[in-house]
Amino acid sequence: MAALGPPARTLRGLLRELRYMSAGTGRPYRDTEAYRYLVKAFRAHRVTSEKLCRAQHELHFQAATYLCLLRSIREHVALHQEFHGKGERSVEEAAGLVGLKLPHQPGGKGWEP
Amino acid sequence: MSSGAMWRSCLCLRDGWRRLLNRPSGGPTASVGKGANIPFPFRAYAPPAERKRFYQNVTITQGEGGFEINLDHRKLKTPQAKLFTVPSEALAIAVATEWDSQQDTIKFYTMHLTTLCNTSLDNPTQRNKDQLIRAAVKFLDTDTIWYGVEIGSSTSIMGPSIPARTREVLVSHLASYNMWALQGIEFVVTQLKSVMLTLGLMDLRLTVEQAVLLSRLEEEYQIQKWGHVEWAHDYELRELRARTAAGTLFVHLCSESTTVKHKLLQE
Questions:
Q1: Are residues A57 and B204, on separate chains, in Cβ contact within 8 Å?
Q2: Which residue has the higher pLDDT, B96 or B34?
Q3: Using an 8 Å Cβ cutoff, are B249 and A69 in contact?
Q4: What is the distance between the alpha carbons of residues B10 and B13, in angstroms, rounded to a whole number?
Q5: Interchain pair B206, A2: CB under 8 A
Q6: pLDDT digits (tens, 9 = 90+) for A5-42
Q7: Shortest Cα–Cα distance, B156 to chain A (Å)
Q8: Contacts by A83-86, CB closer than 8 A, 24 or more apart
Q9: Rounded CA gap, B208 and B192, in Å?
Q10: From A34, which residue of chain B is nearest by alpha-carbon distance?
Q11: Pick from B174, B193, B179, B183: which is nearest to B116 by CA?
Q12: CATH topology (fold) of B53-125
């Protein structure tokens, strides 16, 4: 069986991910369907006398998988923004890299309308 | 880039994603919906590259076929305009969360669960159960991870020959999953390039992080030896984890039936 750690840690991680997601949309994260469902599911399946309950482990596994999904997506988007999201430099910036400036002609270039 | 390596013909998301990368960010999106530079008919099943978030609220309702997603008052539809219904409430909530977490522009390449549901509903490559199973089993010949099955190791480039009995057992095991779950399984097998790791995930023996690590053993070894490049290694690792986690969760949610039995508490 996969080593998942304590369910409380998974739940904490999930709530943290939900908080990050809701921070962007402005609505409190406790309002979301996902929050309500997760809290209900964790509460309902906590009470079991069997230590090796497979159904409980299965639910914890699904929660851990969902946590991995949310975390990976967030980190992936962050990496994308940082490394791949900037696009090209403008002509001014490119010239500025080597210390040059674009020429400035007060009357325009002549062929511009 | 891992996007170029993926062959998923049923969901040309890679093309949409490549165009997203080429587009400079920060400027207002000029085109909403499919851009004019898509050559027809190669992009028949591609989602639009960029759309602004056009809805305020995402809600879930239960219809006849299952759970439906509503963006404001509009019902979500698949790319082929079918009504978007899922059999599992948890899956519906996860999909709704995906849509709700989009800010400003909708990043379709992060919405893996939505994509998987669309694939299952539309079946754009029109494959039946047998074809999906065969597609997944094809990876068995090149699987580099072996569990305690009678397959020896091989030093030749062709790989060990898989006994027919093993193949049959695998095929019959995969046949026990329903069509939706099989789409998910085939997706994960394609991502991890390994049938064994996928089965390990479905059987709760491996976590997603472990399975992805095992799938990338060669790369991890090279990284430890030569150093790691954040904008490539970490980027691909997160992407692989996201896709694998989505596929695994999808399979689990599509093949379970939740029954809550209340046991009598004996004090």
A1: yes
A2: B96
A3: yes
A4: 9
A5: yes
A6: 888 899 999 999 999 998 887 788 888 889 999 999 88
A7: 33
A8: A83/B230, A83/B231, A83/B235, A84/B21, A84/B231, A84/B235, A85/B25, A86/B24, A86/B25
A9: 10
A10: B93
A11: B183
A12: ATP12-like (3.30.2180)
Q: What distance in Å separates the CA atoms of residue A88 and residue B238, rounded to the nearest whole number?
A: 24
Is CATH 3.40.50.620 correct for B127-150+160-260?
A: no
* C-alpha neighbours within 13 Å on the C-beta side of residue B51: 12
Domain map (residue ranges) of chain B: 53-125, 127-150+160-260
From A55, which residue of chain B is nearest by alpha-carbon distance? B258
Residue A62 phi, psi (nearest 5): -65, -40
Return the closest-CA partner of residue B1 out of A79, A90, A72.
A79
Q: C-alpha B108: how far from its chain's center?
A: 13
Q: Are B135 and B186 in contact (CB under 8 A)?
A: yes
**CB contact (8 A) between residue B97 and residue A32:** yes
Say if CB B204 and CB B171 are below 8 A apart: no
Structure tokens at B191: 């991502």
User: Which helix (H) or strand (E) element contains residue A44?
Assistant: helix A33-44
Asked whether the ipTM of the predicted complex exceeds the cut of 0.90, the reply is no
Q: What percent of chain B has pLDDT over 90?
A: 41
A1: chain B residues, CB-CB within 8 Å: 204-205
Pairing of strands B105-106, B58-62: unpaired
Q: What value, to the nearest 5°, has the Cα angle with vertex B84 and ends B129 and B14? A: 70
Enter the DSSP assignment of B140.
G
Q: What is the pTM of this model?
A: 0.76
Question: How far out from the chain centre does Cα B223 lie?
Answer: 26
For residue B228, what are the CA distances in angstroms to A86, B209, B231?
22, 18, 9
DSSP bridge partners of B68: B61, B85
More confident residue, B256 or B98: B98
Q: Within 10 A of B115 (CB to CB), how many other CB atoms are there?
A: 24
Helix or strand (DSSP H, E) at B71: strand B67-71
**Cβ pair A25:B101 closer than 8 A:** yes
Residue from the list B107, B238, B253 with its beta carbon closest to the beta carbon of A75: B238
d(CA B129, CA B126): 10
Structure-token match 């998923």, residue found: B8
